[in-house]
Structures are given as structure tokens and as C-alpha cells.
Amino acid sequence: MKRLSIDEILTKSELRDTQITVQGWIRNERGNAYVRFINLNDGSTIHNLQVVADVNNFSEEVRKDWNTGASLKVEGKLVASQGKGQNVELLAEKITLLGASDAEKYPMQPKAHSMEFLRENAHLRMRTQTFGAIFRIRHGLAFAIHQYFHERGFYYWHSPIITASDAEGAGEMFRVTTLNLENPPKKEGKIDTEADFFGKATNLTVSGQLEGELGAMGLGKVYTFGPTFRAENSNTARHLAEFWMIEPEMAFYDLKDNMDLVEDFLKYLINFALEKYADDLQFLDERFEKENKQKKKEEQAEMGLIEKLRFVVANDFERLTYTEAIDILLQSNHYKKKKFQYDVKWGVDLQSEHERYLVEKHFKKPVILTNYPKAIKAFYMREDEPLADGKETVSAMDVLFPGIGEIVGGSQREERLERLQARTDEMGISEELWWYLDTRRFGSVPHSGFGLGFERLVLFVTGMGNIRDVIPFPRTPKNAEF
Ligand code: ATP
Ligand code: MN
Predict the structure, then answer these.
(1) Dihedral sign, Cα of residue 366, residue 370, residue 376, residue 379
(2) Angular region, 169: left φ>0, alpha ψ -120 to 50, beta rest
(3) What stretches of 42-81 adopt beta strand conformation (E)?
(4) Helix, strand or coil, per DSSP, at residue 136
(5) Could you tell me the maximum CA-CA distance found in the chain, to the nearest angstrom?
(6) Is residue 243 lining ligand 1, measured as CB closer than 6 Å?
(7) Which residue's CA is minimally distant from atom 10 of ligand 1?
(8) Mean pLDDT, residues 224-249
(9) What count of other Cβ atoms lies within 10 Å of the Cβ of residue 391?
(10) Which of 21, 173, 222, 267 is most solvent-facing, going by the fewest CB within 10 Å?
């Protein structure tokens, strides 16, 4: 018999009144002395298939195993449902137990669990409705990212995971070594990195950008989509030590082209989720609403989840410079009433509270901030003409989203060898980055790119509150279980 998923069984009308076989896990079981109802789920959809079992046909011995979490194979006839809540149900003729589950011990009981409890049971949480929905959407977004770029002539480019350059400066790195840490070989009192596997010190990458730029300098348009690692000791709801990043890099793109691309890209992805994962989003929308009601008035979101996603797709992002943003902050009542914890003045890096004020209170929509002070941004960003008052900026762009803050960081890259070299000289990294500087030596072109944190996108689309809940097995300080 053809293998059928519960999603197919519930949506294909031609299956009605036919014999089918289905396999899945019991979400819950209830009923009376004559008939039992088993809700079965196989991960293909948020919806369960209701299996109806006549007590006369199944012995007590068989029925005692119908516990939440157990897995079954059920054969029978799919018929129109008598009850509310589903169109079809399966009249069971044969039920085979695939794997038993001890009702007392199974952690995923059919009731509301705290997010913390579900994190501690991350090996089983994908069997809940919430996490099923999240991980289906996560998959869908990953697929849509490849589709978007492929259809627009970008090549999927694999930057290395192990790197010898720690020049990017995006964050603290994790060391990769095969040296015996108990008793490492030493040279002049220091660990002898020449004796290490690669003959030099190596780390896990914090970003695939620099190698992405190398790809763009021959292939034109490339994108990476891979894991990146940052030993960030910040225990926030928006940082992971291991996260996935999408980094497109485009030859012949200036900052404006870069902004146009990122806006179109984000709208495409959100729209894809709205169209293809409507049922999962409907469920998450209701969950979001419940959570929202429990928050303090001033922290409540003004829009529902689906409403917010539609709003982002339908409206232009606000584009302004860092300098304009500082002026807005300085003139805000929020600032005048001293409600910001961190200082606001030209030259400081914007804190999350400032970003969120701009996005959630002032503009009430996504914002692209550009032309940040040179001193607070990375060395590879293109220097702008100095401002009238002599202040120095670079062609950076950060995309800020409501409830998230920074979701994308990008820039036009410095393509002029003398300027770039001056900056790498200052930092003492010119020698190490000889290969990077070579791209500016041989056929340099204006180019741009950005990095989208995949989990921040999934966080936004699913309306979840903590980044630990949108990746199957989160890696955070003091936590690498599973
Ligand atoms: P933040 O200021 O939020 O720490 P960042 O300035 O360090 O971000 P970038 O180095 O520009 O971020 O990285 C590009 C993108 O990667 C960010 O816009 C964000 O979406 C994502 N990102 C950065 N750090 C993390 C992290 N630790 N966990 C998850 N996503 C991250
Ligand atoms: Mn960071």
C-alpha cells in the first residue's frame, strides 16, 4: 500500500472512503467504554488524524498501550467525520504498536509546558504542536532562501568553517586544535601553534564574508548559508554561540542596490512563509496572542503575528542615516525624560533600546540605518565622503526589525586598495590578509553584501520570544546538551 502522510490524508479528497495505512505518534487518547479516539500525528502537518477504535475490536491487552508518545501503525477506512473539528477520520481495523511509551514517564504530556521545560527536553519537543510548527517553518525558510537566490543567478558558495584568520573581528572565536591541552608543546614559553594540525592557530568561523567576497570577484553573485560560531558570553534572547547565517556578496552592487536586495529578499521570505505555512502560522498566531495578553500593557505588541508579517510585506522599509537616527533619538520625549539607559550621542554604537525605539515607537516599521561612524564599524566597509562637519562614516547598513532589533548587518565593501590597505595596516592584519587585499589589486570592482542571522529571521516569522526556541539544539554559554 502506498505510504501516505497525515497531511495528504487530511487534504486529498480522493482518499475519502478508501482503505489506508497510516503511521504516527499518539498525541492523546480519550473516549468511553465503547469507542476510543486516538489523535495521531506524524510531523507532516500541525493537524492530527483522528483514529476511531471500536472497543469490541481491540482487547484490553492491546488498548493499554495507547499512551501519549507511543507510535502506531493503523489500517482502516477513511470516512467523513461525525464529530466537530475534523473533516475525516480513520475507522481502525488493525492497530499495530510500533514503539510503546510509558504514560507515567513520557515528558511531553498533552498539556501546556513551560518553554524552559521544553528546552530541557529538546530531544522530544519537536513532538509538540508549537515546535512542529516552528521547525516546519524553519525548513521552509531555508528552502525559500535557496530558491530566491537560485532564481536570481546567485551561486551557493561554501566558505570554510575552520579559518586561520581572526581578522573579521565580529566576535570572540572558538579555538580549533588537536594539541594536547593537558601538556601542549611550547616554544619560548608560549604554546607552539606550529606544532598544531594546520601549522598555525585556527578557529571556527564567525562569518563567511571575506571568502564570500573572493567568490563574488569571479562568479559575480554568490551567497553562503552555513553555521557560524561566536563565543559571545552574552546570555540574551537573541544570541547563540552557534547560529546559521546567510551572506550574499555581489559584484557591481552599491549600497542602494544592497538595500533594495535585502528588502526584497526579506519580504519574499516572509511572504513565502505566509503562503506555504498558513496552518502553522495560524497556530503560532493564536499562541502569540495568548502570550501577548499576559505581558504588561507597555510591552504588548500592537499587531498580531500574521498581521505583523503581512504589514512588513506590504510596506516600504524606512531608510535613513545613522546621523538622522541620532537626531531623532535626541529629540524624542523618551530621551528628554531620560528613559534610555545608555547614552545617545553621535559616535556611539546604538544599543538595542535605541534600535527598538526607532522601529517600534517612532517609525513602527522595519528600518534600514546606513552610513554609520567609521570608528564603530568593520575595516572592510567603504569610506564615505566626510560629512560637512568633518565626521567620518562608512557605507554600512543595518536592518532593524520590530521585536528583534538588528536582523541584518551589511555594507558596500571598500574596493580601493590604498584605503583598505591603510585600514588593515592600522590593525596590523595586512600580511595575514594578503589574499583579501589581492582582490583589490587585480580587477577590483565596487561590491556589496550583507549577513542575515537565520535564527533571527525564524524568530521574527514564528513570533517566538527566545532564539533558543527556533533552532533544534541551541548552543549557549554553559549549555551544549544533546
Ligand atoms: P548584534 O549586535 O545583535 O550582536 P552583530 O553586529 O554582532 O549583531 P553581525 O556581525 O553584523 O552582527 O552579524 C550579522 C547578523 O548575524 C546579525 O545581523 C544577526 O542577525 C546575526 N547574529 C549576530 N550574532 C548572532 C548571534 N550570536 N546569534 C544569532 N544571530 C546572530
Ligand atoms: Mn554581536
Answers:
(1) positive
(2) left
(3) 49-54, 71-80
(4) helix
(5) 88
(6) yes
(7) 170
(8) 95
(9) 15
(10) 21
- Yes or no: say if 213 and 413 are a contact pair by the CB < 8 Å rule: yes
CATH assignment at residue 461: 3.30.930.10
Q: How many residues does the chain have?
A: 482
Query: Where do we find the cell 514517564?
Result: 105
Cα of 455 from ligand 2 centre, angstroms: 14
Q: Look at residue 299 in the predicted model and tell me its pLDDT.
A: 86
What burial letters (b/e) apply to 438-448, b meaning 16+ CB within 10 Å? ebbeeebebbb
Q: Which of 384, 317, 327 minimizes the C-alpha distance to 354? A: 327
Amino acid 46 reads I
- Residue recorded with cell 559584484: 251
Tell whether ligand 1 has an atom less than 6 A from the beta carbon of residue 173: no
pLDDT tens, position by position, 252-279? 999 999 999 999 999 999 999 999 999 9
245 lines ligand 1 (CB under 6 A): yes
CATH label of the domain that carries residue 26? 2.40.50.140
- The ligand 1 atom nearest the CA atom of 245: 16
Distance CA 236, CA 190 (A): 35
Q: Which atom of ligand 1 is nearest to the CA of 407?
A: 20
Could you list the residue range(s) of the whole structural domain that residue 50 is in? 6-110
> What residue type is 329 in one-letter code?
L
Q: Identify the three-state secondary structure at position 416.
A: coil
Let me know whether 55 and 137 are in one domain.
no
d(CA 275, CA 281): 10
DSSP notation for 343-366:
---TTSPPPHHHHHIIIIIII-S-
